[in-house]
């Protein structure tokens, strides 16, 4: 499976971690950077299935790796792990990514780790880059529980939010969010300002409810109702009635169905 191959080449799998203080080798890095462009030229449907498989099976592996890796001695490995995360489609569109971020036990300190890596600096790797990393940072507070952070205002700890370079206005003007519609530092500055201005996690909680409403609408044939049911196994696909699971299974869920540990 391509998803397993990518996780193995990047040494993200729990059963084959990098030794302590050992960074990715040139050959490992070459394998990863050859595989990613090859995946991204596949038909859109195949790319979507690939990221679903990767998110369902290896997001826990990525999180464990990032908690273990040292920025001082394993910068390439950290940069590659974040590059892969940043290429996963928006959680609003990728249900397994969304499910992972909404699981506080699985996500826990990951938002702060990723934010701090941005501040310390990572090695940009095409087709990812600063804008993709910034977009990933945006996803973290929007989808993760604000109580994961040390002050309850966002899932990213307060000191990490204060250290973000775009908050100080000294970087980011050339970095654009993943969709390329706005400079990343401007969007992130606005989000940061709203987080700090409102009490507790009110801003992020209310925004997440809106995002969930946009992503959870059942899109079975002729459906426009709010979903009340979900797939009993993967817990990601939403249904508004008993006939919808049959429609979904025939129209793509059969090849997008993955059991997760989170």
From TrEMBL:
It comes from the Eukaryota. One of its GO terms (molecular function) is zinc ion binding. This is MYND-type domain-containing protein. The lineage of its organism: Eukaryota, Fungi, Dikarya, Basidiomycota, Agaricomycotina.
């Amino acid at each position: 499976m391509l998803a397993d191959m990518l996780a193995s080449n990047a040494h993200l799998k729990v059963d084959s971690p990098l030794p302590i203080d050992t960074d990715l080798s040139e050959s490992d890095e070459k394998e990863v950077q050859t595989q990613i462009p090859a995946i991204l030229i596949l038909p859109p449907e195949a790319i979507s299935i690939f990221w679903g498989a990767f998110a369902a099976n290896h997001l826990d592996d990525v999180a464990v790796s990032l908690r273990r890796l040292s920025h001082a001695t394993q910068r390439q490995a950290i940069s590659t792990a974040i590059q892969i995360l940043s290429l996963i489609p928006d959680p609003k569109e990728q249900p397994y990514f969304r499910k992972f971020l909404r699981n506080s036990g699985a996500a826990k300190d990951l938002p702060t780790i990723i934010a701090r890596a941005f501040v310390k600096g990572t090695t940009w790797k095409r087709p990812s880059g600063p804008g993709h990393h910034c977009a990933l940072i945006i996803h973290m507070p929007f989808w993760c529980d604000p109580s994961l952070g040390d002050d309850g205002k966002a899932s990213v700890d307060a000191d990490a939010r204060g250290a973000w370079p775009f908050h100080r206005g000294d970087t980011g003007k050339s970095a654009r969010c993943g969709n390329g519609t706005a400079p990343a530092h401007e969007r992130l500055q606005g989000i940061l300002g709203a987080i700090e201005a409102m009490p507790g996690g009110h801003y992020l909680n209310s925004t997440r409810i809106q995002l969930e409403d946009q992503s959870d609408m059942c899109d079975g044939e002729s459906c426009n109702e709010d979903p009340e049911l979900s797939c009993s196994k993967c817990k990601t696909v939403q249904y508004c009635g008993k006939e919808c699971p049959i429609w979904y299974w025939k129209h793509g869920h059969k090849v997008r169905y993955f059991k997760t540990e989170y």
